[in-house]
Amino acid sequence: MSRHAPSSGAAPRRPGRPAGRTAADGAIADREVLLAAAEMLIRAKGPDVSLQAIAAEAGVTKPSLYRGVGDRDALVMALAERLAARMSESLSRLVAEAPAPRQGLRNLVAGYLQLAARERHLYLFVTAGGAREDRVRQSLRLADGAAGQFAEPIAAYRAAQGADAEVATVWSYGLLGALHFVTLWWLREPTGDMERVIEQISELLWSGLGLEKGL
Cα–Cα distances in Å, from 49 out to 76, 128, 170, 187? Predict the structure, then answer.
């Protein structure tokens, strides 16, 4: 009769594999912990980090990362949602603090560009990090929250001026598209004066839409 305890049936942990994260145990690491680790590594190393590196940063195996979050596209979508939520909250507060609509637009532009600059690697990861056609959904995931921050004040202001307020949604995505590409340009060439860029794009968006006269 063997003096050893009976086997539990779990596969032995290979050297280097984090405890509790074997391929056989089916353990799922905490999703928020995994996403936080991914954000931390992307901020430190850039948008080209691998899933293997992210798993190592989180202290789990790559299969555990897949079980907890999904493939690279799923990770991009999840991080886009997190960034979009933070961006929406920040922009909403900045718009609400403005004493007048034009200042609200400037606050929104400044907040968007400044947040993208602070989160440069993460912004690039969620807008261009997908591997397939999901890049469209990923970009729109980030855009949806910010577009709402554009649409509401545009609609309210134009309605108060007796102008067509139904253009607000289309205009908001158009504005965001312009702002997104200005942001990508600035992230590529961040030597310019950010305040000057903010003033220039704010002037374009305000004057180009005829908001001052409610046209």
Answer: 12, 13, 35, 18
Compute CA 19 distance to the chain's CA centroid, rounded to the nearest angstrom. 32
- Alpha-carbon distance of 39 to 44, in angstroms, equals 9
Asked if 42 and 99 sit in the same domain, the reply is no
pTM of the model: 0.74
Burial class (CB in 10 A: 0-12, 13-18, 19+), 189: exposed
Could you report the per-residue pLDDT of 159-189, keeping only the tens digit for each? 887 888 888 888 888 888 888 888 888 888 7
DSSP 8-class letter at 212? G
Nearest to 47 by CA among 184, 150, 161: 184
Asked, for residue 129, whether it belongs to a domain, the answer is yes
* Owning domain of residue 56: 31-68
147 and 48 together in one domain: no
